[in-house]
């Protein structure tokens, strides 16, 4: 096959590209320039897609003897990931930019260009597997549970899975990938993994948002509507947050209070007891299926749902009702926020996902 290897400059994508070459594929490496600040450098494990990463990717490609290009996707990344991130926070939601990047950049914009140029698949260093199932291709967890990245790939559709190539999916551990990179003489063998939001490398999300959307004083209220504090901008708060509330009125029971809801229209933040973070149901209108859809999505089916990349999946039932994918939890789940992504599983198989639009608390307001 003709393979376009997306090379981030990290060890995972480097070994994935090397394995694609070993498998006899015609491989071309590409690094995506996602920022127009060309002089940007990494700070340890923070940030990615920097000029330093591009140079690391080029050195790996030279070592593998494959052609290498840098493609400027910065405008698309700004529009589809960064601006979406800001808009979601302004709407009172908690977005996941990595999901949007996989959905709209790596497996939409990149794959689209790859197919136009005659490539058969895009290769990445994600830890996940694509298998043949009874009703077509299926996305499954990787063999290494701790490094599994199927959650952030839950946005992929059946057509995208048909052109996705994940050589690391059956690798038992990240340590083995690093050892393989070392044995191949790849200079990225001991390079730290990147973390946090790549376009906010210092990790100060609140400060970054304040620069872009400004500040707007508002009220912090309890579940009954009583004012218990004030803030400089609702966008700075997320559901489940405890620190930084600076409440002027203590709770009657003396216990800590947490952010339960962000209301952007009125610029209000709602707080309450930890117990009120328990969610019985979540739903989203923006849903997709990773492969074949259930034969009858309107009929409730058993599944597990995962709402964060490193969270444990929990038992649930799901069904499509009135244009929404509605997920009912067997036991309440804590700290779920609109804007997060809920990925559904059947064992190791990814069934589909939705961006959470609303949640239903398991604890009544007057409880």
Task: Outline the structure in words.
The structure is a single chain. With 367 residues, the chain is an alpha+beta fold. It has three domains: 141 residues, 3-Layer(aba) Sandwich (Rossmann fold), CATH 3.40.50; 58 residues, SH3 type barrels, CATH 2.30.30.280; 84 residues, Translation factors (Elongation Factor Tu (Ef-tu), domain 3). The protein has seven helices and 19 strands. Strands 5, 6, 12, 13, 14, 15, 16, 17, 18 and 19 form a ten-stranded antiparallel beta sheet that branches. Strands 3-2-1-4-7 form a five-stranded parallel beta sheet, sandwiched between helices. The chain has a four-stranded mixed beta sheet with strand order 9-8-11-10, with no helix packed on it. Helix 1 runs parallel beside helix 2, helix 1 crosses helix 6 and helix 3 runs antiparallel to helix 4. The longest helix is centred in the N-terminal third of the chain and has 20 residues. The radius of gyration is 22 Å and the shape is globular. The N and C termini lie far apart (60 Å). About 2% of the residues have low confidence. This is tRNA-specific 2-thiouridylase MnmA. InterPro entries: MnmA-like, MnmA-like_C, MnmA-like_central, MnmA-like_central_sf, Rossmann-like_a/b/a_fold. Keywords: ATP-binding, Cytoplasm, Disulfide bond, Nucleotide-binding, RNA-binding, Transferase, tRNA processing, tRNA-binding. Its EC number is 2.8.1.13. Pfam families: tRNA_Me_trans (PF03054), tRNA_Me_trans_C (PF20258), tRNA_Me_trans_M (PF20259).
């Amino acid at each position: 096959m003709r393979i376009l290897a997306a090379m981030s400059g990290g060890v995972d994508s480097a070994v994935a590209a090397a394995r694609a070459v070993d498998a006899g594929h015609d491989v071309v490496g590409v690094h995506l320039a996602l920022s127009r600040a060309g002089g940007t450098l990494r700070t340890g494990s923070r940030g990615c897609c920097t000029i330093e990463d591009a140079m690391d990717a080029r050195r790996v490609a030279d070592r593998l003897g494959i052609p290498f290009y840098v493609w400027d996707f910065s405008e698309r990344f700004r529009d589809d990931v960064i601006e979406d991130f800001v808009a979601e926070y302004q709407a009172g939601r908690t977005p996941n930019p990595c999901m949007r990047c996989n959905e709209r950049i790596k497996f939409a914009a990149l794959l689209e260009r790859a197919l136009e140029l005659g490539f058969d698949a895009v290769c990445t260093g994600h830890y996940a597997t694509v298998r043949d199932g009874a009703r077509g291709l299926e996305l499954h967890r990787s063999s290494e549970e701790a490094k599994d990245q199927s959650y952030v790939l839950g946005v992929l559709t059946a057509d995208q899975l048909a052109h996705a190539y994940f050589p690391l999916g059956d690798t038992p551990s990240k340590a083995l990938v690093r050892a393989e990179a070392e044995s191949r003489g790849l200079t990225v063998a001991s390079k730290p993994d990147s973390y946090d939001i790549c376009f906010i490398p210092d990790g100060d999300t609140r400060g970054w948002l304040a620069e872009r959307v400004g500040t707007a004083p508002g009220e912090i209220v309890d579940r009954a509507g009583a004012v218990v504090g004030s803030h400089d901008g609702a966008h700075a708060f997320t559901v489940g947050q405890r620190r930084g509330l600076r409440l002027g009125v203590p709770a009657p029971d003396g216990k800590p209070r947490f952010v339960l809801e962000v209301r952007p229209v009125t610029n209000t933040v709602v707080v309450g007891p930890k117990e009120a973070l328990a969610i019985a149901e979540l739903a989203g209108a923006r849903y997709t299926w990773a492969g074949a859809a259930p034969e009858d999505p309107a009929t409730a089916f058993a599944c597990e749902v995962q709402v964060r990349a490193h969270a444990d999946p929990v038992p649930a039932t799901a069904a499509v009702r009135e244009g929404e994918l509605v997920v009912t939890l067997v036991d309440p789940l804590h700290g779920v926020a609109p804007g997060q992504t809920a990925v559904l599983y059947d064992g190791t198989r990814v069934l589909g996902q939705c961006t959470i639009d609303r949640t239903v608390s398991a604890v009544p307001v007057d409880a």
